[in-house]
Automatic annotation (TrEMBL):
The keyword Transferase applies. Pfam families: DegT_DnrJ_EryC1. The keyword Membrane does not apply. The active site is at residue 179. Its cofactor is pyridoxal 5'-phosphate. This is Putative PLP-dependent enzyme possibly involved in cell wall biogenesis. The modification N6-(pyridoxal phosphate)lysine is found at residue 179. InterPro entries: DegT/StrS_aminotransferase, PyrdxlP-dep_Trfase, PyrdxlP-dep_Trfase_major, PyrdxlP-dep_Trfase_small. Belongs to the DegT/DnrJ/EryC1 family. One of its GO terms (biological process) is polysaccharide biosynthetic process.
């Protein structure tokens, strides 16, 4: 948090604009559009809420199938189940660790052959890096399937000069406490279609009909962002580029110190854009490095350094055990060998050196 966030929050209190409406909400939506290059936005209570609304707004209903990246956090797929729809998981490529366009193509061809195309595809932009959007969007348009971009982890990244989250029918972002900028909790839904963001705002405000009394013709949700949190978001947006620079610097320092070691490979930066390095991730080949990922993680933990495996693929999660998948071997391999290093924007050189020394010392 910085001075501008405090200024905006103080303003919210002094003007008594506290509830999920107010000038900071309007300004945050407007300024966010300017930041990512979108035409319309609706601020909501979380990225998960934004994704839930996005699925509903593209017409996902009970019994429909929705294709989703497998290598991601469960929040990318949970809203599919909220609507009674069925997740189908798509494997990653090794270039970006995101949805593999070739696997998606095979999945769409198979579903088209049996007359069972998905209602939507959720494209996740993992760890601050964009998926390869051009072929994915082209495939979905070819088959008439809606596209939703889960850019929760990728604010500040680029794909061919544009922000991921702005290519599909709907994009969503997260401002959870662990994201590159935060409102403590919050999210944003963006679209080039004004009717989508307008309907999102309506549904997120309990779907209250325009009437002098309380009248509801649709089921709604309590998903709007408060004016206080929007004020925090406005201040955080002003330092987004600084946050991205700090995360990329972390990764560069780790790479300079560790990339030469046998068996260590960092998550590649795909050639189509710039990654934020929201998290610095690497894989460890135990044969070449001498020890496996888990041994390294535990050695770091002994030094009070928190590191985590990369996301466990959703097709391996107990809750999604009955769901279909296409591929999965790449995601499984990245999970088996992948490690996320401490990556906070406020890490000092001393902090980074502690992590590096702990990794070097883990080999004994």
């Amino acid at each position: 948090m910085g001075d501008r966030e405090h200024q905006f929050v103080t303003e919210a209190f002094e003007t008594n604009w506290i509830a999920p409406i107010g000038p900071h909400v309007d300004a945050f939506e407007r300024e966010f559009c300017q930041t990512v290059g979108s035409s319309h936005a609706t601020a909501v209570s979380s990225g998960t809420a934004a994704l839930h609304l996005a699925l509903k707004l593209v017409g996902v209903d009970a019994g429909d199938e929705v294709f989703c990246s497998s290598l991601t956090f469960s929040a990318s797929a949970n809203p599919i189940v909220y609507l009674g729809a069925k997740p189908v998981f798509i494997d990653s490529d090794r270039i970006s660790w995101n949805m593999d366009p070739l696997v998606l193509q095979a999945a769409l061809e198979q579903r088209a052959s049996i007359g069972k195309l998905p209602k939507a595809v959720i494209i996740v932009h993992l760890y601050g890096q964009s998926a390869d959007l051009d072929p994915i969007i082209k495939l979905c348009k070819q088959y008439g399937v809606a596209t939703i971009e889960d850019a929760a982890e990728a604010l500040g990244a680029t794909y061919k000069g544009r922000s991921p989250g702005t290519f599909g029918d709907v994009g969503i972002f997260s401002f959870n406490g662990n994201k590159i900028i935060t409102t403590s909790g919050g999210g944003m839904l963006v679209s080039e279609d004004a009717s989508i963001t307008s309907k999102a705002k309506f549904l997120a405000t309990q779907a209250r009909d325009p009437a002098p009394h309380y009248q509801h013709s649709e089921i709604g949700y309590n998903y709007r962002m408060s004016n206080v949190l929007a004020g925090i978001g406005r201040g955080q947006l002003m330092v987004l580029s600084d946050r991205v620079a700090a995360r990329r610097r972390n990764c560069e320092i780790y790479q300079q110190a560790l990339a030469h070691l046998p068996g260590i490979e960092f998550m590649p930066e795909a050639p189509w854009g710039s990654a934020t390095r929201w998290l610095t991730c690497l894989t460890i080949d135990p044969t070449a490095f001498g020890i496996d990922r888990e041994t390294v993680r535990l050695a770091l933990a002994e030094q009070q350094i928190e590191a985590r495996p990369v996301w466990k693929p959703l097709h391996l999660q107990p809750i999604f055990g009955d769901c279909e998948r296409f591929g999965g071997e790449v995601a499984e391999d990245l999970f088996d060998r992948g490690l996320c290093l401490p990556s906070g924007s406020n890490l000092s050189d001393e902090d980074l050196n502690c992590v590096i020394e702990a990794i070097l010392g883990s080999r004994g």
